[in-house]
Amino acid sequence: MPADDPGIPDARSPIRYLYWVARRQAGALTVGIAYAIVWWIALALVPIAVGAGIDAIRAKDTSALLTCGAVVLGLGVVQVVAGTMRHRMAVFNWLSAAYRTVQVTVRQATRLGATLPRRVSTGEVVSVGNSDIAHIGNAIDILLRATGSIFAIVTVTVVLIRTSVPLGLTVLVGVPIMTVAVAPLLRPLHRRQHAHRDLQGELSTRAADIVAGLRVLRGVGGEQVFADRYAAESQQVRHAGVRVASVQSMLEGAQILLPGLLIAGVTWLGATFAIRDEMTPGDLVAFYGAAVFLIAPMRTLTEAADKLAKGHVAAGRVVRILNLEPEVTGGTGHSGAAHPGGLLRDVASGVAIRPGIFTAVAAATPEESIAIADRLGRYTGGDVDFGDVPLDTLPLAEVRRRILVADNGAALFAGSLRQELDTTGTASEEDLAAALHAACAEDIIDALPDGLDSEVAEAGREFSGGQQQRLRLVRALTADPEVLILVEPTSAVDAHSEARIADRLTKARSGRTTLVCTTSPLVLDRADHVIYVEEGVVQAQGTHRELLATAPAYAATVTREEG
């Protein structure tokens, strides 16, 4: 996609989105259509030139025969050149439309952030990249041949009318009738394609859930239940596909039957005129060749209707994502200069993170601490103050840069482990080494064949749960944000590793604003300040040992004992 493309189009309907895509590559489309027109017209004129050559042979006119031969040769050369360039531009336009859709979808996904998984299923997003981009590319690609085919039909019709008015009128009337005859098939095709695409998205979501939770399913013996459920849903997709294919087969049949009837009619009329000497043998051959040729552009028009219908359905899926708005947006305050920061306070709960202090929040339920972290990181709406200004008045990009929330839902992406841990590419070897040491992750790197340069598989599946958690902690520490909020950073590691991480983490973040949401006594004991939250509100504050002695509810929560 060109660098000057807008990030996300204002496309409120599938038609507007397809128009936007076509407009963004109008130059390439225009060139491709021009080549398609030349190619189609060259094909259309060949039967006419051949017919003229036959009449030249009948009249024993050598000069006219050589001229017709040269014309046929020239048309062949034009076909080769124009056809090659038309196909090249068709591929270019297909790729441009398809990957322009990928880019705007990815940009919208980045813009939506945490809103996207709440509003759209994983399978829906995956299906956009798997199938919808192909249909959108096909819808743009077919514009070249469809436009050229219209010019070819007009050219043949004009030539036929000039040679024989009855035959020319037969073609002129027959082509629109056949085009209209297939229109009733398009609406049920569109409806069934829409239903099929919905089921495909749901099935993709099911597959993603099964793959992500396969280890858990095997542990509880539930893999067969979900396998049966997937099989049942896949059968629904198959049946929906068969319903789509039934209409498509009728459409394909119409593409053969209707042009065939027209050709038979034109050929019969032409033969009748030739028997009456109202037409020369060359004209008859030209008419027959032109009538046979018309099958191709007419099939192209029917194909265009099919691909545009599919493209409309696919564009509707893309527009559904593009029309989503982030649940949380940033403000414009202090956009010209950096805000000095200060105390980060969640008004609803009363949780306050003092600058430069290692703070811990222990909540009666994990959901409470997660909700507080999301509000403090501006992932959900809430009344939060950052220093002397509301957090929602700051630009969202500045909030993301200065406040980092790292939880156990953060993904490990495929690629180099070094790039995975140093997402900005600015960390030095010493910074990475310090972060690895603080997260007790050196053993993970040592076990890899290429160390930090080793390739990480999708979702980091080659690592255990504890290893993934430590690598996520390394990534958060390497980012070195002004405010770091960690949600249960040691829940998947053993007690020995947890104790070491607790010691090293407090040293690594010494003098930096840090909040850890946890109920681990090992981490809480190292915190400078501990806040206990119950029913969404701060109930007690102090050090870990002070709260153990003075707050029974806190003691019960962190020691896992009854009240």
Automatic annotation (TrEMBL):
Ordered alphabetically, the record's keywords are: Membrane, Transmembrane, Transmembrane helix
* Domain of life the protein comes from: Bacteria
Q: Which residues form the ABC transmembrane type-1 domain?
A: 31-310
What the entry lists under InterPro entries is as follows: ABC1_TM_dom (IPR011527), ABC1_TM_sf (IPR036640), ABC_transporter-like_ATP-bd (IPR003439), ABC_transporter-like_CS (IPR017871), P-loop_NTPase (IPR027417), Type_1_exporter (IPR039421)
Domain named ABC transporter is located at 256-560
Subcellular location(s) per record: Cell membrane
- A single MF term (Gene Ontology): ATP hydrolysis activity
Membrane-spanning intervals of the chain: 26-50, 62-82, 142-161, 167-186, 256-275
Q: Does the keyword Protein biosynthesis apply?
A: no
| GO CC annotation terms, alphabetical | plasma membrane
Q: Which PROSITE patterns match?
A: ABC_TM1F, ABC_TRANSPORTER_1, ABC_TRANSPORTER_2
Topology versus the membrane, per the UniProt entry?
Multi-pass membrane protein
Pfam families attached to this UniProt entry: ABC_membrane, ABC_tran
- Xref: Gene3D superfamilies: ABC transporter type 1, transmembrane domain (1.20.1560.10), P-loop containing nucleotide triphosphate hydrolases (3.40.50.300)
Instruction: Report the protein name in the record.
Output: Multidrug ABC transporter permease
- Which source organism? Planobispora takensis
